[in-house]
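User: I'll paste a sequence; please echo it back and then give the predicted structure.

Assistant: Echoing your sequence first, then the prediction.
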Amino acid sequence: MRSAARLTYEQVQRARDEGDGLGLPISHLYAAFRALLAARTERGTLDLDLPERKVVLDGQGRSWRSRRAPASTVTG
């Protein structure tokens, strides 16, 4: 994947809320999300709103434990 910027979910949400696209096609990405969501809803897919998990690795890069990730405040 080629990325034009490394942004957190919160930074993108703030840019959208403030109308500042940060020079990126953020509004187009939200439009694509809405189109995909509408198609998924039309198909009747199951949406499980489960808490996100964060995998913690040991010093050798192996999975050591899993914990609940902090909740995101991002809205669609």
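Strands lie at 53-57, 63-68. The two ends are 23 Å apart (CA to CA).
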